[in-house]
Design brief:
Two copies of one chain form a homodimer.
Chain A (H helix, E strand, L loop, with lengths): L2 E5 L5 H10 L3 E5 L4 H8 L3 E2 L3 H7 L2 E4 L4 H9 L4 H4 L5 E4 L5 H12 L4 E4 L2 E2 L1 H7 L2 E6 L2 H11 L3 E8 L3 H29 L4 H9 L6 H11 L9 H17 L5 H18 L7 H9 L7
Parallel strand pairs in A: 1-2, 1-4, 2-3, 4-5, 5-6, 8-9
Antiparallel strand pairs in A: 7-8
Helix pairs in contact in A: 1-7, 4-6, 9-12, 9-13, 9-14, 10-11, 12-13
């Protein structure tokens, strides 16, 4: 039985570590703040003081970190995974990372005989807790096959997308669509609300027809209640859109709508709502229109 | 039993007229071109040579017409519905019309004792044929109650939205969301395709997670096959977006994303694709990126 390391015990990493424990793996955890470490140690995990130590004690290391610089430091920095890992081990990075960074990490770890999979997830904290995440995987296909039994412990839809970076590219494309579907529902609801229509009736009509989207299903009722508790934080989605636009530029793909929605996400953050749910871009559209989409 | 008039026997009007016949109503039809009239006469309908004549022979008149000027001419012009209708009759306008025009028609017909409902539909030709359209209704609520048994013959989700114009406002908000959901899936798929990912795998991932939308379900596979057979024609959706932007302006609602998507719809039409499906805005995004989203 493998020993599994989990580095980064936030909203996603903590439930993933619990699934590893529940599946009967030996689990070694590391996190900057110690609260979640204590929780998992109480549940049976061992603690390690550096990513290097995690890697030296595990054949599989799962990372769940906020952004590309953090992932790169944890993987390739001093006292990082590269320094501790043994040949034949696997890194599974579930963070939403820059595809270029994922490729660099994969290539650097490959030289030490370590396989790196970029395996970003969709489904949020509820999906992580339920173990029903959608996982998009890039990297060596053999390594993907070896990692699949572990991925299946926290994911339901697991898709191999291609060489290193392909998982991240898929996630970024996904995040573009999610951001724009929020903007779409925002403009539809704001126009209707300002024109005096009942937002709950509007929502019902949209959900019953071609305007339906998962974003509308998950957030429509919350928007009408002015509830922007995160969920996925706006600042993290801004990071995703930044990576998407940089990546698109490198491929020669102009993204008119993504550029506009990124500016609107930035403006929403500038208005002090960076820690709200990412659907809070809709509050910017409300501000522009001088109205609120609210239950009658 | 009422006699039902149907004016405008296009993709939507013709199946609606058939549902009226199948439900056992006496049906009187009028259309500019005579082909669909002959079909319906063969199926048991009577023919009338003007909207006025239709109105004079029916207690309920259903219109299904391409744009606001046509609806206004048919309702209020010479030899129009107003000239022929008798007190107590009902107009059900299923066209996507300008809310302002719907209000003007309702107010003008009200003076003659005729109730006008704006009742635009969503669900396209397949929904019209199956009798499962979503119908959004504005107008007098009593008239809505009286018309409901007729609406139920071709609609499944029937929602009363409020005073005259409310049905149209709802439809325009719906069309904003649909247009932007196409743009969203277009940018996500174009980025992925140009970066070398398999569009079919991308589609599967999107549909399994938070990027899911009815637009992606209905059109994703077609886009990957380069199939832009209409469906709803692009030029008609441009008209809807124009009405949406004019209406938004009158309410003081700036619509950043809708403005951009309308410009992109216009550019797609300028490229000679006005008669393609409205999802063809995605071909413009392909052109901008110099790539095609195609099956491998």
């Amino acid at each position: 039985m493998e020993t599994i390391g989990v580095i980064g015990l936030g909203k996603m990493g903590k439930p993933i570590a619990r699934h590893m424990l529940n599946a009967g793996y030996r689990v070694v955890v590391h996190n900057r703040s110690q609260g979640p470490v204590e929780e998992l140690v109480a549940a049976g995990a061992a603690r390690a003081s550096t990513p290097r130590e995690v890697a030296s004690r595990c054949n599989v290391v799962i990372t769940s970190l906020p952004d590309a610089p953090t992932v790169e430091a944890v993987c390739l920095g001093s006292n990082g995974i590269r320094d501790g890992a043994t040949e034949g081990s696997i890194l599974i990075d579930t963070s939403t990372n820059h595809p270029e960074t994922s490729r660099r990490i994969a290539s650097s770890l490959r030289e030490c005989g370590i396989d790196a999979l970029d395996a970003p997830v969709s489904g949020g904290e509820p999906g992580a807790i339920a173990g029903t995440l959608s996982i998009m995987v890039g990297g060596d296909e053999d390594a993907f096959q070896r990692a699949t039994p572990i991925l299946e412990k926290f994911g339901r839809t697991i898709t191999y997308m291609g060489p290193p970076g392909s998982g991240q590219l898929t996630k970024l494309a996904n995040q573009i669509i999610v951001a724009l579907n929020y903007a779409a529902m925002g403009e539809g609801l704001v126009l209707g609300a300002k024109a005096g229509l009942d937002p709950e009736k509007l929502l019902r009509v949209f959900l019953g027809g071609q305007a339906q989207s998962r974003c509308l299903e998950l957030k429509g009722e919350k928007v009408i209640n002015g509830n922007y508790e995160p969920g996925g934080r706006l600042t993290l989605h801004i990071k995703d859109l930044q990576y998407a636009l940089e990546t698109a530029k490198s491929y020669g793909v102009p993204l008119l709508f993504t550029s506009l929605v990124q500016q609107c996400f930035e403006a929403t953050k500038a208005a002090g709502r960076g820690d709200w749910d990412h659907s809070a871009v809709i509050t910017l559209l409300e501000d522009l229109a001088g109205t609120k989409i609210r239950k009658r």
